[in-house]
Amino acid sequence: MRNEKRFTMISPQPGFTARVMMRVAEQERTQTRRAWLGSALLIIAAIAILSAIVWWIASWVSVFVTTPQLLVALINAFVTLAFWTTKFAQVVWDVALTVADKSGALMPVLALVAFALTIVWVRVVAGPFRRIPQKQIVGGLR
Known about the structure:
Helix content is about 75%, strand content about 0%. The chain is mainly alpha-helical.
């Protein structure tokens, strides 16, 4: 058991709690001021970005309004690209079916096509494949 008489009780100086509470209040005011300043900067940045986007869209709209031939040319180019893409896909499909029909392997080819479409779908939904590093991480550092 300890000898309590050897220890002296130290009391804080007068006004200590008042000074601590003033510091806490000042810190809270500073944090509030910083939060308002950060919010204002965030709002100003959002308005600037939105106005830049509106300006960009307006410039494109003005280009298409002043030269409607450009819009017609873009639509024609897109239609032509879509036409040739579908023709190419149709040729690839017909070749695959012909090869599968002649070799008697229609089901494996269709299964391979289904597998390829599944891989493409997974890639689109889950994002790119990532290689797992072979090194083991020790202590959170590499």
